User: Which sequence fits this backbone?
């Protein structure tokens, strides 16, 4: 089974520029997550989708971050404009289960974002 | 607010030794406790998980011990190997959405 695919692997931009990340989850996985992992910390959930609907985006800085999941499959996460504190690894994960399910989350290898 | 506290931040163990990583949680609504392993440049991967209705779960060299009254759980890696060198994260989830709250991670180094 193919894993969660993310691109690009690395991105370097200057502050106030915009950037977008792409995620292709495991086929058939209903739930998709975006996490932010700052160096030396655990992943922090930004947004959770179930199919193409948002389950929770309470920790997404909506003034600069946006995300969508078209047709309940691929997803994009955008930052506009970027700030220095956005430097992190952005991880995408997917799981087969929906609500009330403890199906494991499968993570991609992330996009490492550096803000200059 | 950090809801899952993990210690130690780093751990060095000799090959063949036992590695022990501890986590404590505050929210009694958590009802699922997984451990993830992360290698440099890779995403976290599920290692083992436990529900609070059992006190221990073992899979191969990996064991989770769970103390519901103390709101603590720990990961034990028996016969630690250099290939186990990685960062380990405990996590907890609750509610219908099953979102994971991660600890801050433990960087394990197993010396050959």
Assistant:
């Amino acid at each position: 089974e193919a894993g969660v695919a993310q691109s690009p692997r690395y991105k370097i931009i200057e502050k106030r520029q915009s950037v977008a990340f792409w995620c292709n989850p495991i086929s058939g996985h209903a739930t998709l997550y975006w996490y932010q992992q700052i160096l030396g910390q655990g992943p922090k959930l930004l947004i959770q989708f179930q199919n193409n609907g948002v389950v929770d985006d309470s920790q997404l800085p909506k003034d600069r971050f946006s995300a969508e999941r078209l047709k309940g499959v691929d997803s994009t996460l955008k930052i506009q404009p970027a700030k220095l504190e956005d430097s992190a690894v952005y991880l995408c994960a997917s799981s087969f289960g929906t609500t009330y399910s403890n199906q494991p989350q499968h993570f991609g290898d992330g996009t490492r974002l550096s803000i200059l | 607010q950090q809801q899952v506290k993990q210690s130690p931040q780093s751990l060095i163990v000799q090959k063949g030794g036992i590695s022990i990583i501890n986590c404590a949680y505050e929210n009694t609504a958590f009802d699922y406790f997984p451990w993830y392993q992360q290698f440099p440049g890779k995403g976290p991967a599920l290692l083992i998980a436990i529900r609070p209705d059992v006190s221990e779960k073992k899979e191969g060299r990996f064991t989770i011990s769970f103390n519901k009254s103390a709101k603590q759980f720990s990961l034990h890696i028996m016969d630690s190997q250099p290939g186990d060198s990685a960062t380990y994260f405990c996590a907890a989830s609750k509610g219908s959405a099953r979102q994971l709250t991660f600890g801050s991670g433990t960087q394990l180094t197993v010396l050959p």
